Amino acid sequence: MAGEIVSSVEMLRKLVAFDTTSRFSNLALIEYVQGYLKGHGIDSKLVPNEDGSKANLFATIGPNVPGGVVLSGHTDVVPVDGQPWVTDPWTLTLKDGKYYGRGTCDMKAFYAIGLAMLPQFLKAPLKKPIHFALSYDEEIGCFGAHSLAARMASEVPKPRVIIIGEPTMMTVVHAHKGSQSYVTKFTGFEAHSSMTHLGVSAIHFAGEFIHYLNTVQEELEAAAPKNSEFMPAAATFNVGTIVGGTAGNILARECEVLWGYRELPTRPIEELGERAKKWLKEELLPKMKAKHPAAAIETELRASTPAFSPEGNDDAKALAGSWSGSNTVGAVVYATEAGIFRKVLGVPTVVCGPGDIAQAHQPNEFILASQIDAGEEFMKRMLEWCCRN
Ligand SMILES: [Zn+2]
Q1: Could you tell me the residue ranges of all domains in the chain?
Q2: Which end of the chain is less enclosed by CB atoms within 10 A, N or C?
Q3: 178-305, which class in CATH?
Q4: Which CATH architecture has domain 8-176+307-386?
Q5: Rounded CA separation 158/233 (Å)
Q6: Separation of 361 CA from ligand 1 center, angstroms?
Q7: Is 124 exposed, middle or buried (CB count within 10 Å of its CB: 0-12, 13-18, 19+)?
Q8: What is the average pLDDT value for the chain, to the nearest integer?
């Protein structure tokens, strides 16, 4: 059976047409990729989520030996709801040297280019394998990458380098902050707002917690390294949403705070969260309970993405730099799957891919046509390297 031959742009058009917003299944895209690989004689393995509604995919091109390259990308995209799109987000549209569509830069272009080059990979005398690794649910907490990396660690001969193709304009990113998020539910006791001695307002105590986070923030900023690659240099807290209360004249019984932080690679990702939970339990809860014994505080972890440390990535930096032609190496503050892959596979990793993060998650997301060319050049140089001993 002759496999499908498509250009990078045509492959991107096909991938963009699958609405893989994280709340939906990604299986239609995964099945398409699986069928495309199969058409070229390549078997892929799927790693499904618990209810089977989504799956990761990995596949190896070339010899099944150690020392290969992993090309990693996520299949899901962020929602387009409420965004003022000028073109249909699911139809790749070329205008003035830019390809518009949801997922063009974040991040279907990277593996569209790799998949489109599959016939060239197969024709080449590969000495080192090329592995595709596609995940689900990156955008809502990197949930798929954990099981994907774990399966690859046990089934794929140890690779030499992992490339996470998030948009960096083909520069090399060797570190990023981690991300941790929690929801804390404060339960108070309702009373008339004039009778503050009879109840306990969940909102007022949630406010104290937010003040506590600000205090820790000031402490972190004062202690932040002076010549940091990260901007901002310190770990940073954010309270994303607050929901609570029923009326202006009632002490609020409930208040829910969604909060989290972006953490440096130098501190365990859980540490600030554990510290905040201890403060809630030992400092704030007794104060609430002193007002009314029904008061309660519950904190639940929502998502955790480890930071990506620059340690031990020199090999990947050198290789990705030579393939991309970029000698810019930097750090970013947004999280990717790099920290997970780096940790689970224990292989030098970098983030390097086409497109600009400034366009990610935006209405009218696009990738420059010249970035697709740059991505193709990267893959060609990588392929040459894979054919050497
Ligand atoms: Zn992304």
Answers
A1: 8-176+307-386, 178-305
A2: C
A3: alpha beta
A4: 3-Layer(aba) Sandwich (3.40)
A5: 34
A6: 9
A7: middle
A8: 97
- The four Cα atoms 298, 261, 77, 350 give a dihedral, to 10 degrees, of -140
Which H or E run includes 219?
helix 202-223
Q: Give yes or no: 376 in active site.
A: no
Catalytic residue flag (residue 76): yes
Phi then psi dihedrals of residue 360, to 5 deg: -65, 145
Q: Report whether pLDDT(311) > 70.
A: yes
Written as six digits, the tokens of 265 are 């690679």
- CA 315, 351, 373: angle at the middle one, nearest 5? 105
* Mean pLDDT, range 329-339, rounded to an integer: 94
The band of 2, judged by pLDDT with boundaries at 50, 70 and 90, is confident
The DSSP secondary-structure symbol of 91 reads S
C-alpha 231 to ligand 1 mean position (Å) = 19
**Contact (CB, 8 A) for 340 and 306:** yes
Q: Which two structure tokens, joined as six digits, stand for 186?
A: 């404060």
Q: Given the residues 106, 137, 138, 190, select the one marked as catalytic.
A: 138
